[in-house]
Amino acid sequence: MAAPFAASTRAAAMPLPAGIGMRAPHHVALLEQRPSVGWLEIHAESYMGGGAALHYLEQARQHWPIAVHGTGLGLGGSEPPNAAHLDRLAALVARTEPLLVSEHLAWTGIDGRYYNDQLPLPYTDETLEHCRRNVAAVMQRLQRPILLENPATYLRYSESHMSELDFLTQLVASTGCGLLCDIGNIYVSSFNHIGAGAAHAVAEAYLEDLPRQAVRQLHLAGYREAELDGGDAILIDDHGTMVPEPLWRLYRHAVQLFPEAETLIEWDSNIPPLSALVAEAALADRHRAATLDNSPSGIDEQGDEQAG
To answer: pTM for this one?
Structure first.
């Protein structure tokens, strides 16, 4: 059994101020304004091809720590990660010397055909073995632990015979990887599978049952509500709005459970001006401080500062 991620790599210091995703529309503004955020996270595949994107990244890493978030390895697939893709990721990691490296608990393709989505897994012993093999191969190639992100799901496989939590816990224990806890994904999945009324309680219970020493990073992003053909509501994890109130409530609970985890604001569609992301990161910092101080902090449940 592998040693837990926390045993050799977890920093003793408190985390950096909240970070934001480094997205192409903000490349110039980031470097001109140099906003007061703790760190930047990049999508690995956006910076593997060189050119202008890599030029901006090289400049940004002079001012902020960088984290690398992959989207294309498909670690839950039945096939090993594409060797050429993994080599490109390894070169990017070596070049940027990132704070953290993460990927998704998902599959993305088969037989050389790849899909532009993070597809859900059946939680079975066979899938667990595929994930163990693939995670181990990636960590061996990168010569460092990685974090796995829990998915947002819209369906469940009848073949699954263990919960997502059990699956993640076994994967952490057997590989030594860490966890990127996406709070929005937990809430979206809870809402979609359990319903609106119980979603918050189910999401809180999920947070409480995660292996605490493995959680190194928290993601916060907006979602939208859609209506199915039958009229039922479903949440879509589109990263296209401000962080909604239910997620701020869950975030405060997550900070209590994982006080040393880094926090990131994600915004990948309907991307607003840079100032909106910076403001969301500052709000996350205020929520964190209030939670750790065990005080109301002047922040109401909608995330707005109350009048003094």
So the answer is: 0.90
- pLDDT tens per residue, range 231-262: 788 999 999 999 999 999 999 999 999 999 99
Rg value, the chain, Cα = 19
The single residue listed with the structure tokens 């939670």 is 291
The contacts of residue 92 (CB under 8 Å, 6+ apart) are 44, 47, 48, 68
User: What is the DSSP track for 82-104?
Assistant: PHHHHHHHHHHHHHH--S-EEEE
Quick one: how far is CA 171 from the chain centroid?
Answer: 17
> Do residues 73 and 25 lie in contact, with contact meaning Cβ atoms separated by under 8 Å?
no
Query: In whole angstroms, how far apart are CA 149 and each of 81, 83, 219, 276, 300?
Result: 17, 21, 9, 24, 29
Tokens of 103: 């990927």
Distance CA(298)–CA(59), nearest Å, equals: 37
Interatomic CA distance for residues 271 and 154, integer angstroms: 24
- 247 and 187 in contact (C-beta within 8 Å)? yes
Question: What span, in angstroms and rounded, lies between the C-alpha atoms of 146 and 130?
Answer: 16
3-class SS of residue 15 = coil
* SS3 at position 39: coil
Q: Are 264 and 257 in contact (CB under 8 A)?
A: no
Is the pLDDT at 107 greater than 90? The verdict is no
Per DSSP, 298 falls in state T
Structure-token pair, residue 233: 């509501």
> Is the Cβ–Cβ distance between 294 and 255 less than 8 Å?
no
pLDDT surpassing 80 at residue 125 = yes
Contact indicator for 66, 40 with CB cutoff of 8 Å? yes
Q: pLDDT confidence of 49, banded at 50, 70, 90?
A: confident
Q: What is the DSSP letter of 24?
A: G
Nearest to 29 by CA among 65, 59, 68, 69: 59
Q: Which helix (H) or strand (E) holds 114?
A: strand 113-119
The overall longest dimension of the chain from CA atoms, in Å, is 60
